[in-house]
Structures are given as structure tokens and as C-alpha cells.
Amino acid sequence: MRLGFMQCGISRAGFLEEEAPRLEKWLNQNHHGKMAYMENHFDKRLDPRLLVEDAKSVISLTLNYFPEQGQTDPDAPKISKYAFGNDYHDVIKEKLFQLLEFIREQIGEVSGRAFVDSAPVLDRAWAKKSGIGWVGKNSNIISKKSGSFFFLAELIIDLELDQDTPFSTDHCGTCTKCIDACPTDAILSPYIIDAKKCISYLTIELKDEIPAHFSDKMDNWMFGCDVCQDVCPWNRFSVPHSEPQFQPKENLLQMKKEDWLDITEDVFKTIFKNSAVKRTKFKGLTRNIDFIKKTS
Ligand code: B12
Ligand code: SF4
Ligand code: SF4
Predict the structure, then answer these.
(1) Does the pLDDT of residue 287 top 90, yes or no?
(2) HSE (side-chain half, CA atoms, 13 Å) at 290
(3) More exposed terminus of the chain, fewer Cβ within 10 Å: N or C?
(4) In angstroms, what is the span from residue 26 Cα to ligand 3's centroid?
């Protein structure tokens, strides 16, 4: 695809019947912790027709972020692969707008909206429904062709399109590598993540102090966590992305442990210009570094 998307699938916009009780249970059990935004718009999250007037089709897309290289210092605090380059929200939004424009040029007046992560849409449910992949036991969407190191996004439009066949098989089999490897036991059972325990939540979403009992469990992660994907056998099929905007920020991968421990706000601003890491702000990142410093 010219815009660089890796996979695309189409499903009919409608109520997500299977997901409704799962989402309700997940929220009732408080697995979302302090991500209050997950409690909002429950009905819209389950039905895109409440989000986009006259919605007929959901076009699900994936964008690969698997990098060619990792951090060079094995003792440096770790940053998740998805955050090496520019913020994916900005990169993908721009591509979705271009795709919507292209559809309009080809077909005529089409109304729709572009979504990547930030709105009440169950990205993974739509990816499964549109045939992109299955929900792995680590809860990520896995594609047989390319593993799981990709972002998900959607165009929800008022145009009736042919649907793809939903992905109905599960290729995890008897494997439990992700569950066994999770440093904080955040994968409570297959497909169910207690976000409150997930390092990604603790380092990015949680604004308060990280609870002390995690101090020896952070596995040296300072932003996000890739463990349950790194151990997944399906990620042997990951190939490096070719998205220039996801190229690692200059010097980021070469930063040594000491450089991170001494990081200043100016260095933070330079290294993470236009990056998703800005979400934690300097204060959040240094909170994380200080927290893991005690045990690493
Ligand atoms: C909140 C959130 C988080 C939270 C909670 C994670 C979670 N599992 O819900 C935290 C902060 C912990 C998090 C972490 C990460 N996230 Co996140 N996150 C989201 C967000 C914003 C909403 C997810 C959500 O709705 N959760 C609620 C639960 C109930 O929904 P769900 O897990 O999607 O729903 C499925 C399961 O519940 C499953 N299920 C439940 N029961 C059962 C039973 C059976 C039998 C089956 C088959 C399935 C099943 O079915 C549901 C739908 O298919 C989405 C973006 C979006 N708008 O969708 C990104 C998103 C899911 N995250 C993403 C990523 C990349 C990550 C991280 C890898 C980032 C990192 N490296 O640090 C980690 C991975 C952690 C993990 N193992 O999940 C990607 C996933 C891409 C992919 N290939 O799947 C998404 C889609 C963002 C994007 N647009 O690309 N995330
Ligand atoms: S991202 Fe890390 S902490 Fe979160 S579920 Fe996966 S392995 Fe566990
Ligand atoms: S590690 Fe194994 S169980 Fe976990 S998602 Fe990958 S294949 Fe499924």
C-alpha cells in the first residue's frame, strides 16, 4: 500500500455483541485502574454507529513498527520499540486522512472519521472481525504473516463495502510463553490483562507514584514493556518497518545507563521531540528512571 500500511481488512459497522460482556466485566473488576477514560462512552465503544453518523463499514489497518535495531547498552533503562520514533498517533492520523481523501477521489462524497487509539473504539475487536489476526493470550492482535509489532487504526465510513471474513481461529495453541514471562504477572489468564499490574500502565498511564511492591519487578523498563511480545514465537516473523517517521530519534539507542540517570529536561526535549514519550513528560520519565534505579 502506497501509504505504508501493512494489512487492511473490512467489517460491517455494528454492535460488538461478543465484546460487550467482556468489556463490562473488565471494567467492573477495575482492571483499567486509574484510566478513567476507559469508563467513558461505554455504548459508543461497542457500536461505531454511535460515533459516526450512518456508519456502514469499518476499515481496519495495521502499521508495522518493528525496528531494525535496539538499544545498544544492555544495562540502559529500556524503552518500548513502539516509541523509538515519532508519535504514532500523529503519523497514522495523517495517513488515514490521506486514505479517506483517496477514497473520496475514487468514489465521490463519503463521510467518515479516522481513529487511532485515542477515541472510544475497540481497535482489537475490529482487527479480529476484519480478518487481520487473532487475539493472542497476551491480548494483542497477532497476524500469521507478521507477528504483533504493529499499530491498529480504523476508518469508519458511511459507505457499504464488501466484508472480509472474521479471524475465527486461535494460533496460540498450548503456548503460555507470554503469561510465564510477564514480569508482574499482569496476564491474569489467557486474554485478560490487569492493566494496574502492567508495566506499560505503570510507566505511561499512571500519574501517581508507582506502588513500591513493583520495585523488583520492573525488569528495567522506563517506558512501556515489550516482554509479552518479545517472547511470542509468532514474532519470529516480524520484519523491520520502512516508515521513515519511525526511525529512532538521534542518539536514543546509543544512550548509556549513565546518560539516562543524568538526563536533563533539555536533553529530554531534544531526544523526544514529536515522540510518544512526551506523554509521560520529563517528570514522568525521571520518576520511572528513579524507580527502577533502586533495583537495577
Ligand atoms: C487501554 C489500553 C492499554 C492498557 C490496557 C491493556 C489491555 N489489554 O486492555 C495498557 C496501558 C496496559 C496497555 C498496554 C499496551 N498496549 Co495498549 N491500548 C489500550 C487501548 C487504548 C484500549 C484497549 C482496551 O479497550 N482494553 C479493554 C479490553 C477489555 O479490551 P481489549 O483487550 O482490546 O479487548 C479484547 C480482550 O478483552 C479480548 N478477550 C477478552 N476475553 C476474551 C476471551 C476470549 C476467549 C478471547 C478470544 C478474547 C477475549 O477480546 C477483546 C476484543 O477482541 C488500545 C487502543 C484502542 N482504542 O483499542 C491500545 C492498544 C490495545 N495497545 C497497544 C499496544 C501496542 C500496547 C503495548 C504493547 C504497548 C507497550 N509496548 O508498552 C502494551 C501491551 C500490554 C498488553 N499485553 O495488552 C495496541 C495493540 C496493537 C496490537 N497488535 O494488538 C493498541 C491497539 C493501540 C493501537 N492503536 O495500536 N494498553
Ligand atoms: S506489556 Fe509487559 S507487564 Fe504488560 S502484560 Fe506484557 S509482559 Fe506483562
Ligand atoms: S506467547 Fe504464545 S500464548 Fe502468548 S500470544 Fe504468543 S503464541 Fe499466544
Answers:
(1) yes
(2) 9
(3) N
(4) 21
